[in-house]
Amino acid sequence: MTSVDAPPGLRPFYCPIEPALHPDVRLIESRAIDWIDRFRFYRDDKDRARVIGTNGAEFYARFAPSGITGNLQVIAHWVYWAFAFDDACCDSGPYSADPAGFLPMAGVLQRALESPWEPVPGGGPFVTALQDIGRGFHACATPSQVRRFCDAHRAWLFGVAWQIANRSRGRMPSLAEYTAMRLNSAGGPPTLAMLEIANGAEVPAAELAAPVVRALTEMTMLIDSWDNDLHSYRMEADEKHTDQNLVNVLSAQYGWTAGRAMDEAYALRDRVMTLFLRTRAGVDGSAALRCYLDGLGHAIRGNTDWALNVPRYHNYGEPMPHPGWTDRPRDTNPAPPPIPAIRWWWRLCELDKENP
Asked: How many domains does the chain have?
């Protein structure tokens, strides 16, 4: 029997999308490390190694393999910053179980991003670094893209606050609630909002707000967040903070072993992956929208290619054996799973079939 004390290993991933990587990834990484050392949002040399070991440049170089190098540079800064902030203030640290402390800090941080030109007294390195990122986005992105990113950043911080509130009460959410929370708490909204900036292609507002595009964006967020849960499960088990993870949520709700819960988690993500591929194939629009939709696919494949080797998910030890890939989803059921927050994705596809 598999248990939390002996975390189950990874299974092969279903993702029939080709891998890709931006050719300037090493240049972007080198410049990003210089930037990290300038703002020093780490405590010591060990913490610095952990920040750099998140491989933030590679992470987004896989999301936007044809992106504009200068724009990707600013984005890489945010990725490194976000991983460091997540470790220091969200998953661990003084705010990780203190929503009353997290929210005022997050509010100051969010406003600093939205108004990055004036220094924030006592803001600290996370604030000053984020303001530099904000100024960088204003220099390379359109006003609409900057506004979309800031709004998405707020959604992320809200999701994290929700997660911290659960932790403060020792509360394990249901699968339905966890799914709704995880759409934001894993950082999906700002990460995908940067696709437009990376590629220098602003999607017309009417296209980006279309229900089917919103659904595809949410599917990408959820697949990536659930995949992160699968990749990080062993590390989190070692560090004793697997409280809100898809595997544990399923185990708590259904009484399954960790091994059974992981199998079911893979089946759930494959069900969403199948819907994503089917839905995306039927969407057309402007060149900017097509670029964005391609980016969503790169985001799913790139997230796993990055995660399979990043020290962040392997506790800075030897990487886990590569689980390989599978060309068949584990769950081919075309009906929606019993999760209210995402059931509308399937209903939307049914309506599209009825009204071609």
From this structure: 1
